[in-house]
Amino acid sequence: MKNFGYEYRKYVIGMVAIVIVIVYTIRLFMLQITSDDYKKSAQSNAFLKRVEYPSRGVITDRNGKLMVYNQPAYDIMVVMNEENGHLDTLEFCQTLGISREEFDQRMASIKDRSRNPGYSKFTQQLFMSQLSDKDFSIFQEKMFRFPGFYVQRRSIRQYTYPYAAHILGDVAEVSPSDIEQDDYYQPGDYIGKQGIERSYERQLRGEKGVQILLRDAHGREQGSYQNGALDRQPKPGKNLTLSIDLKLQALGERLMQGKIGSIVAIEPSTGEVLCMVSSPSYDPRMMTGHQRSKNHALLAANPRKPLLNRSIMGQYPPGSTFKTTQGLTFLNEGIITPKTQFPCSHGFHYRGLRVGCHGHAAPLAIVPALSTSCNGYFCWGLYYMIGAKSKYGSVQKAMNTWRDYMVSMGFGYRLGIDLPGEKRGLIPNAEFYDNAYKGSWNGLTIISISIGQGEVNATPLQIANLAATIANKGYYYVPHVVRKIQDEPLDTTFTQRHYTLAKQSAYEYIVQGMRASALGGTCKALGRYDFEACGKTGTAQNRGHDHSVFMGFAPMSNPKIAVAVYVENGGWGATYGVPIGGLIMEQYLHGKLSEASEKKATEFQNKIIDYGSGER
């Protein structure tokens, strides 16, 4: 009789055997064909792919003075699959001058995929960066004793001068987010973090190369694979020429010592930034080498915020420098004519509202109103514009028309300078005031914006750009700090004119008013120079001592430089703003200061404003 139970078990065993064979076949296929783990392992034993880093582009000022260059440095790299626990850790740590605890921390950090998302045990990982020549020589002599460890040659940034830290920025090791955003980078690479180093990172970094080396069974290098046929040479980064005048930058930083604020100078005919000072500042050389993290922490903890680029991030009331925009708007809209006069009895007085003003002759027209910086004149102008219902139909329409003029002059939005972190300032519109006053407001409610106070805020860069626009009588170029890029044209963003809503004829009267101010008005200290300077002071109200503000350009007939100076708690615009602005103009136009001006520069260098211990 046939045993069907045996027959059944035979088929079951056969099916199990077939399934096992299929599973093993699929697994072998995945390991050998689909997965590259074994391929990587085999290749890692036979080949060493050594990344060759390009030299980063150098940076010079507009006159060719070298500001940023490269210096050789050495990184220690490790391939975990080769290290494999056979390292004499004690001797390794003694050679590098580190503790066993530090060694363990570094190795654990490399394997931590949250910190090092590109980790692979078959590829080189950064163990220690920026060895000095001395430390490199000691390590290289013993490197054969440390399996899995290699030396990677690269370059680090060096800064020639202690100036322009906020413009130049710095370079540091990439973060995990940097690696995720751009597959060019791998752990241990460097990237621009601030300033020009960041905004022109792609031009400066160049292209990596690779060298493929053969190794024997003991991991020793045996020379190039296929005589280097598959190697790829690195391409150096592109050099940058800045628009900055280094001597002017140095003078600006000198004049702002002991003060908080900014100086911005622009060439009106191009939009090139000639100097950009943010005070307090720091030496860019603090942000290099092993001390970078420590120094960055110290700067970040400083209550006066030296890391903040006030030139583009500081948002301040522009004060009376803003009166130039009001005069242009009122003239262009027909609210006033060049001969229109308004009264000023120590200020603007109407329906119980008073905006004070210093003593001067009155009534007066637009040119002397600018020269004397009359508050009353511009308050009356705004009051009549916002209240002109026969012209605009409503206060909202009048307000938005006013807003459009301010925006066309470079306020309320970022100008688009080629530096990271620029702020937009604030220009209110009708919706802003409708929300604030529930739709019940008029020209008297918002009268302070006519003299650059109230809700209006601007950056020092925007104020300097206003000066450049007036110098050009109606247009500006987007300010920029890079003048030339090696083998690459400048972005058209920086070569196109931006016209304002005001006509050139209106600008003629504003220029006359600023020149009159330099000859005998609030900027009369400029009258001593042999070039035709034009200026406008500002005294911006503050919860503490007022800010000292100046805006001007020179020469009047063929402007070469436009300047804005902002000194926090400096008092009257004529106290700090005008003298500093005049020295900046003289240095750029003449290439040096006169003996008398040099004494004045030393005087202002030694003037220190007491800001107390409060944060700002």
Walk me through the structure:
This protein has 616 residues and is α+β, with helices and mostly antiparallel strands. The chain is built from 23 helices and 20 strands. Strands 2, 3, 4, 5, 10 and 16 form a six-stranded mixed beta sheet that branches. Helix 11 (246-255) packs antiparallel against helix 22, helix 14 (323-332) packs across helix 16 (375-386) and helix 15 crosses helix 21 (504-520).
Task: Give the topology, please.
Layout: H1 4-34, H2 37-46, E1 47-52, E2 59-60, E3 66-78, H3 80-83, H4 89-96, H5 100-111, E4 125-131, H6 133-142, E5 149-159, H7 165-168, E6 171-173, H8 176-181, E7 190-192, H9 195-199, H10 201-205, E8 209-215, E9 221-224, E10 240-242, H11 246-255, E11 261-267, E12 272-279, H12 292-301, H13 310-313, H14 323-332, E13 347-350, E14 353-356, H15 366-372, H16 375-386, H17 389-392, H18 395-408, H19 430-437, H20 460-471, E15 475-476, E16 482-485, E17 498-499, H21 504-520, E18 534-540, E19 547-554, E20 561-567, H22 577-590, H23 595-605
Parallel strand pairs: 2-10
Antiparallel strand pairs: 1-8, 2-3, 3-4, 3-5, 6-7, 8-9, 10-16, 11-12, 11-20, 13-14, 15-17, 18-19, 19-20
Helix pairs in contact: 11-22, 14-16, 15-21
